[in-house]
Fold Ribosomal protein uL3 glutamine methyltransferase.
Amino acid sequence: MPSPADDLITIRDLVRYAVSRFNAAGLSFGHGTSSALDDAVFLVLETLKLPIDELDPWLDARLTCAERETIVGLIERRVDERIPTPYLVGRAYIQGIPFHVDERVIVPRSFIGELLVSSLVGGEGFALIDDPEAVTSVVDICTGSGCLAILASRLFPNAEVDAVDLSPDALEVAAINVETLGADTVHLHQGDLFGPLAGRRYDLIVTNPPYVEAEVMAELPEEYRHEPEMALAGGHDGLDVVRRILAAAPDHIAPGGGLICEIGTGREILEAEYPDLPFLWLDTEESEAEVFWLTAEALGVA
Ligand SMILES: C[S@@+](CC[C@H](N)C(=O)[O-])C[C@H]1O[C@@H](n2cnc3c(N)ncnc32)[C@H](O)[C@@H]1O
């Protein structure tokens, strides 16, 4: 029985084939890639264990039969089952750090990653955190794969980092990442938001909670249905968990500390509901005002 792999010899051939198949199938993107081409390149390079940001040197490299069959098989699953590519290859990157992912966790793509490595942390001029070395305690609420906690453990070398998730499944994946990436200062806790952290205060609270509103949940493209529902669904207007975090944060933020929280598109709702909170809205390359920063002082903790 002839297979497409018989005619697809080089990386260029396979990337081209994947883009054609993805476009013809009308796939949805947004799990770390934003187009058929990006997705195809990631699928091919990651499967071959090549650096994912360098396509040119390999374009004309010929592949073995086994490599071609494997990649064609993954392309077919991407199309037929609408599985996001990071689940197919078991890998997602945040700021260059390779995380193990599978369907027990949402695919990491938080805008907070970009903000934490930007000049807003320890940079010249305006910064949210002037001195990363002075940060000694961080908590990542809703940690999923542990990606933001592990990133924080690298950026704040003197900090102990607690990381909480309600999902035991997600914490199993986080534990794999903590172990594989040698993130010894990250401590995982199972529970509801700050539940396992009674009495503890932190210099930095990081959180990317579920925030998809009910109407959007009902119409999510097939790809997103492979992700755990509890990682996405944020109730009627998407802000149920965000409100609970805002209510609990004053009991867990240290004087001089800050809260960075991703909320999606709910800015207007929050501003109307909390007129006295001076939210500082942060933009990234691909988002506008989907993440806010609040200082401890703004939360009433002097
Ligand atoms: C949007 S995902 C974020 C995961 C990870 N921080 C990231 O950026 O990729 C939200 C996470 O919150 C967890 N979660 C949902 N409700 C929670 C709750 N009440 N307490 C703790 N974690 C919760 C989900 O299991 C999921 O892993």
